[in-house]
Amino acid sequence: MGDGVRGLKKLVLVLDFGGTKLAAAAVELRSRTFRARASVPSPPTKSAESDREIVLRLAEEVLGGERPAAVGASFGGPVRREEGTVLLSHHVPDWEGFPLAEWLRERFGAPAVVENDANAAALGEWRYGSGQGTRHFFYVTVSTGIGGGIVIDGELYHGADGLAGEIGHIMVDPDGPSCTCGRRGCLEALASGPAIARRARELLTSCPRPGEGKVLRELVGEDLERISAREVAAAARRGDPLAAEVLREAGEALGFGLAQVITLLNPERISLGGGVIKAGNPLLAPVREAMRRHAFPGSRVEVAVAELGDEAPLWGAAALAEALL
Ligand SMILES: [Zn+2]
């Protein structure tokens, strides 16, 4: 395609201020592919200012000198949607109260919108991925944390304070392990990646039955600190009963949390995303079973696996930016 033709299409800039990576992409209006995309792992020296500089550099790279017609940004933490202000970053200090949408408007001379990453991913999956064709859609992402987003008739549901969809902090066990939010037994404290790793370590050090956990121990060369949800999943696939038990517990907790969502929202489809979901059946079979057991009967909810991977927040940001035009 020549530059002349390209120049006729409006260009949308989308940004992802994530916990593990920073990313930018340029999308032509109503296109389903990125014209250009660039990302870098989040730097270990965590600073809001340097994150912004890096994202600006990525944006320049993907824009190639063109001006965007609108900007959409996904942010890894709660934001005040109306003003586009960051409330808190889950990953980086000094973001509190930063007027991100206003800053983007000034930088790019274009309208800008900012959305929390789980909500952005939910909208991205609804519009371009596993939620297409539905009217009542719930998305949950299970990785370092657990987040969710509610899409009703193509619109994100935010709630009065922008906190709707926080499935990670549905309480599953009031006496359970402590959570990042300061309470106990939240779903995130039982089924997130770090929670799965912690539970595996706990069982391995509390004298498992003979043979249990052997594969998992071998996978990490006996260094239990190296255990993450990924190793637990790999060990379960190779028949390790201890690893399978850890995933079963996490799956049951997740299914219990989703059952509350089903009872309250009666969604048409629930989509499961995030790295931990890649554990597959040893996790997903208990999820489905617990959902069935604990939800109010009668729901015909479908369960799908997310399709857009870690690009879901960028696609949600694209949908939000398009809506500004
Ligand atoms: Zn919590």
Describe the overall structure.
By secondary structure, the protein is of the alpha/beta class. It has two domains: 3-115 and 311-322, ATPase, nucleotide binding domain (Nucleotidyltransferase, domain 5), CATH 3.30.420.40; 130-306, ATPase, nucleotide binding domain (Nucleotidyltransferase, domain 5, 2-Layer Sandwich), CATH 3.30.420. The chain is 39% helix and 19% strand. The chain has eleven helices and twelve strands. It has helices at residues 3-8, 48-63, 100-108, 117-128, 187-191, 193-205, 214-219, 229-237, 241-265, 281-294, 312-322, and strands at residues 11-17, 21-28, 36-41, 70-75, 79-80, 85-86, 112-116, 136-142, 146-152, 155-156, 269-273, 302-305. The strands form three sheets. A five-stranded mixed β-sheet has the order 3-2-1-4-7, sandwiched between helices. Strand 1 (11-17) and strand 2 (21-28) form a beta hairpin. Helix 6 (193-205) packs across helix 8. The chain is globular. The two termini are 24 Å apart. The relative contact order is 0.14. The model is unreliable at 1-5 (pLDDT under 50).
Reported by name, the CATH topology of the largest domain is: Nucleotidyltransferase, domain 5
CATH-scheme architecture of the largest domain = 2-Layer Sandwich
**In terms of per-residue confidence, which ranges show pLDDT below 50 for 5 or more consecutive residues?**
1-5
CATH homologous superfamily classification of the largest domain: ATPase, nucleotide binding domain
Radius of gyration: 21 Å
Gist?
With 325 residues, the protein is an alpha/beta fold. 39% of the residues lie in helices and 19% in strands.
